[in-house]
Specification:
This protein is an all-alpha fold. Helices cover about 80% and strands about 0% of the residues. The chain has eight helices and no strands. The chain starts with 7 loop residues before the first helix and ends with a helix.
Length: about 190
């Protein structure tokens, strides 16, 4: 069997095809961005309300919904996996998100006593990293701007009182995660 030498044009064509396949997969999965954006907004808003009512000891309880969201996501992608196979870029992004999600859970549930008022900014930095990597992998300006917005909000969190950080995270989750998820879903339906 003779192997054909790849030309520069064929290489770029193959790379473009792989990126487009990954973009299509993530546009189809815009629902998961919507899901996590809404879940994160609701849990952080729940924490903000509990903090305002001075229920400090139980203010983290809404975040107990996050592991349930993680289980839902696993079942969601297992169901989807049978319908379509991802290419290497999609796999890298998916495993990157898995790695970041595990880190967010460990940071949130194990290192909370150490991080205290810096927990939300650190979590937002991790979230922005995942969004930013997804944006670069699928060449999405929408997700790129979302990642930058989330990252900037993380740095803003370092300078505001910790009881207002959950409110900021809630707003950012809607604006930079849920709304882009809706837009990705709409883009997919147009195709």
């Amino acid at each position: 069997m003779e192997t054909e030498k790849m030309t520069v044009e064929k290489s770029f064509e193959l790379i473009t095809q792989v990126i487009n396949q990954a973009r299509d997969r993530f546009e189809k999965n815009g629902f998961i961005y919507l899901f996590w954006g809404v879940l994160n907004a609701l849990t952080s808003l729940g924490q903000f309300i509990l903090l305002q009512k001075e229920y400090y000891a139980i203010s983290w309880y809404p975040y107990l919904l996050m592991p349930i969201g993680g289980v839902f996501t696993i079942f969601y992608f297992r169901k989807k996996k049978g319908k379509s196979q991802g290419n290497q870029i999609a796999k890298i992004v998916s495993y990157g998100w898995l790695f970041l999600a595990i880190n967010m859970f460990v940071v949130g549930f194990v290192f909370f006593p150490v991080l205290k008022e810096n927990l939300i900014p650190v979590t937002l930095i991790l979230l922005s990293t995942g969004i930013f990597i997804s944006a670069i992998a699928i060449k999405s300006r929408l997700l790129l701007f979302s990642g930058i917005l989330i990252n900037l909000s993380a740095f803003i969190c370092f300078s505001i009182q910790w009881i207002y950080q959950p409110l900021l995270m809630s707003i950012v989750s809607v604006v930079a995660v849920a709304i882009p998820g809706v837009i990705l879903m709409i883009q997919n339906k147009r195709k």
